[in-house]
Write a structure and sequence with these properties.
By secondary structure, this protein is an alpha/beta fold. Helix content is 22%, strand content 25%. Helix 1 packs antiparallel against helix 2 and helix 5 runs parallel beside helix 6. The protein is globular. The N terminus is likely disordered.
Length: 284
């Protein structure tokens, strides 16, 4: 992302977003204000800006799944053009059970003007070979950008079982990024049983909470959650859903801004309502 990119007025931007795609739903309610962040006065602060979206459920019967995919691509491309995005992570449940749908779903993602990554969810019932063929990464993957490391893990398998992340892989990557200022972890299924569809993975949560530079852990799966939860000094973030038949009444995505590697600002976007659902700040 261009570090000197000026910030646009959010209301103006989101109005343009809403006008760019067919309206599915226009929820009402009071939305939080967009968080204020420190302006990069000298142009030297390292800024990473990325999006997180999950649970598109491409192919789910009785849903307008093709429109949902057109929408998320339009919204993210508008974000990239208006305020800048470095990449997006699609945090699981790309498809709804049928492996043959993965390539078709990814054809929509290929219209994105930014790099993107994906984690396997329980409805992504595909082999790792097919996953690699489509997304060019394995189920468990990591990368770094600037002062931050990013760890993506599968929490399921070809059968759709609920699984804890691979502890050896997580440990290896946490050690690899130990010198980074911040680390972000993406797990489709919550590894704490504090939501209806979470699972208990104490080894993983204890491990994540023991590393000071772990900033946020991102979850999808529970479509009715779009907020932050806290444990062991860590911030766990949910992002609702951008597709599927249940959950939060709106479909949207989360924006994360990492400034200087240690200041994290994040907010949940509801494009069709032209508003922000919530926002959080994390300091390391």
């Amino acid at each position: 992302m261009n570090k000197n990119n000026s910030r646009r007025n959010f209301v103006k931007k989101s109005a343009a977003l809403a006008a760019s795609v067919p309206t599915i739903l226009a929820p009402t309610g009071v939305f939080a204000a967009k968080p204020e962040t420190k302006q990069n006065d000298d142009g030297k602060m390292d800024v990473i800006r990325f999006a997180v979206a999950s649970d598109g459920h491409f192919g789910e019967k009785g849903t307008a799944y093709k429109m949902y995919y057109r929408n998320i691509v339009a919204w993210l491309n508008a974000e990239a053009e208006n305020e800048g995005l470095d990449f997006c992570v699609f945090n699981g449940d790309i498809i709804h059970d049928d492996p043959k749908l993965l390539k078709e779903a990814n054809a929509y993602f290929k219209e994105l003007k930014i790099p993107y990554y994906a984690t396997q969810g329980n409805h992504d019932k595909v082999s790792e070979d097919l996953w690699k063929e489509v997304f060019n990464i394995p189920f468990n993957y990591s990368f770094e950008k600037g002062n931050s490391g990013f760890i993506l893990c599968t929490t399921s398998n070809e059968k759709g079982e609920y699984l804890c992340a691979d502890a050896d892989f997580v440990k290896e990557k946490l050690e690899l990024y130990k010198s980074k200022k911040s680390v972000f972890v993406f797990l489709h299924i919550s590894h704490k049983k504090w939501v209806d569809n979470g699972i208990d993975c104490k080894e993983i949560t204890d491990m994540l909470e023991s590393y000071e530079n772990v900033a946020c852990i991102f979850h999808g799966h529970d479509h009715d959650h779009h907020e932050a939860m806290y444990s062991g000094g860590k911030t766990y973030l949910f992002d609702g859903h951008f597709g599927g038949s249940w959950g939060q009444e709106y479909k949207g995505y989360r924006i994360v801004e990492v400034r200087g590697g240690t200041e994290v600002y994040t907010y949940q976007c509801n494009p069709l309502a032209r508003g922000i659902q919530n926002n959080n700040k994390v300091n390391l």
